[in-house]
Write a structure and sequence with these properties.
Blueprint (H helix, E strand, L loop, with lengths): L11 E6 L3 E6 L4 E5 L4 H5 L2 H5 L1 E4 L4 E4 L4 E4 H6 L5 H6 L2
InterPro entries: DUF2442
Protein name: DUF2442 domain-containing protein
Length: about 90
C-alpha cells in the first residue's frame, strides 16, 4: 500500500509586512497571513519597526526587538492570537 507522505517544514523563510496583516513564508512553501490586529504590539508599531524582524528559535519563531514581540510558527498554524492579557494591557 502506498501512502502520500507530505514533508512539512514550519521554519520561517521570510516575513512580509502588509498594511493590515503580515505574511510568513515557510520553508515548505506554505504562506501564512495573519491580521496585525491579532498582535497589538505589531498593530501599534510603525512601518520601520515592523520591518526590523529577525528569525529566532532555531527558525521556528519571529522576533521584533524594538517592540518586544515574539511569535512562533506553531502558534500561527494554530490560529492563535496574542494572549488576552497582552491585548488588554496594550489597549
Amino acid at each position: 500500500m502506498n501512502t502520500l507522505a507530505i514533508q512539512t517544514d514550519i521554519r520561517v523563510k521570510n516575513v512580509l509586512i502588509h498594511e493590515d496583516a503580515f505574511s510568513v513564508e515557510l520553508m515548505d512553501g506554505r504562506t501564512l497571513t495573519t491580521p496585525l490586529a491579532w498582535f497589538p504590539r505589531l498593530l501599534k508599531a510603525n512601518p520601520e519597526q515592523l520591518q526590523k524582524w529577525e528569525i529566532c528559535g532555531g527558525g521556528y519563531g519571529i522576533h521584533w526587538e524594538e517592540i518586544d514581540e515574539d511569535i512562533s510558527t506553531e502558534g500561527l498554524l494554530r490560529g492563535a492570537a496574542a494572549p488576552q492579557n497582552q491585548m488588554q494591557s496594550l489597549v
